[in-house]
Amino acid sequence: MDSSFNPSVSVDCVIFGFDGSALKILLVERDTEKEVDAAPDHKLPGSLIRQDEDLRSAAYRVLEEMTGIRNIFLKQLHVFSDPERVVGNELQWLKEYYKVETPRVITVAYYSLLKLNKNIELHTRRKQAIWTDVQHVRHLALDHKKILMEALSTLSRELIYSPVAFELLPRKFTIRQLQSLYEGILGIEIDNRNFRKKIFASGYLTPTSEYEMNVAHKPARYYIFNKTAYEKEIRRKIRQGFIRWHE
Amino acid sequence: MDSSFNPSVSVDCVIFGFDGSALKILLVERDTEKEVDAAPDHKLPGSLIRQDEDLRSAAYRVLEEMTGIRNIFLKQLHVFSDPERVVGNELQWLKEYYKVETPRVITVAYYSLLKLNKNIELHTRRKQAIWTDVQHVRHLALDHKKILMEALSTLSRELIYSPVAFELLPRKFTIRQLQSLYEGILGIEIDNRNFRKKIFASGYLTPTSEYEMNVAHKPARYYIFNKTAYEKEIRRKIRQGFIRWHE
Question: In order of start, what are the domains of chain B with their CATH numbers?
């Protein structure tokens, strides 16, 4: 019998938040002695899984602990399993922090999307976690920068192929906010006129009678995403066997 | 110190093969005493991971062992981590087979796409693995039926949003083969005329001067997928910030 090659399994959560203008990510400072690593030691929120929980429950546990909320978009991203991803001092720190004996740590990354608001910001501040502009993230502990890049790349793809953007926006939003979100995630500038034309052609945006207040520019109208109509149409198209990779 | 909640980690491979008319999946018979389970005990090919390998290497190891080939489409599907997924006799069998002590097994599923040919079929027969029509799979050991359903659902989505179908087809294929593949995976009948129209409109199919031989019906022309042109166009579109979920 040899259990020595049973790895520890953790979850790490890439929690994206959108404040109406920039895409942010939630980072925590590692609870570690300064000698371990001189660099500022920020990481993604995460945890080893418990014996009686599945991975999704573990990810929700981390998410709720850090943000105070639970019923939000959460999706498995990828498993990171390089045998060398946690070694030396890093592995030592983990063994002591979790009080486990382990040769190796495999992590399952999840990503989550939320609309930032005052309550969430209050909660995260109490947890000493920080919302950082994704464009400004330089170094992260372990392989967490790699995990973040993978999450961004997946989110970009989702943004193109599914209406996931609306998970990050308040229920009522302006076209400018929607465009900022696309630009923030895709990391590009999008032609304003083209974007508006495409998004209105979708037929899934319902105009409200409300406009922005107290803005210097011409107040923009608020819209609502018609999710029900979208999902109905997708089901219809799939029944017809539609193919869209070549469009 | 308590290592007891370190789970074992395995990979399980959903290996899809297309023979020109039906979508098949590779199954193995479990090496088990008949008392353990009276039902025919087929499962997905898989393995516990080794201490020095990452998950992808483990999946490639299984794939190569079972099919004799290596350089084919392989993608991480999902992690299955229900604490109750392997218990009782099933867990006992696993402990004895792998000679490990373990409270629980988490598996990372991969899926792979290949074009069936004589060499592969010879190899799999030697391994006593069987190619089964996906439509005919009833019961599988453990939660492998659930893994298969998840793989089919992911493959359906990929089929719609990416040109993944060509991984399952020989380099030269007929439109009929392409359509059979779509119908086999999506589990629907597709209108022939509509399909041809859509697929030709893509501009990514290059006609060859070759036709089917020895067929009862009018010989169909062979086509080649122009992958380079497709990838170039996608990169161009992404730079333009295109959105296609609403199209």
Answer: 8-164 (3.90.79.10), 171-239 (1.10.10.10)
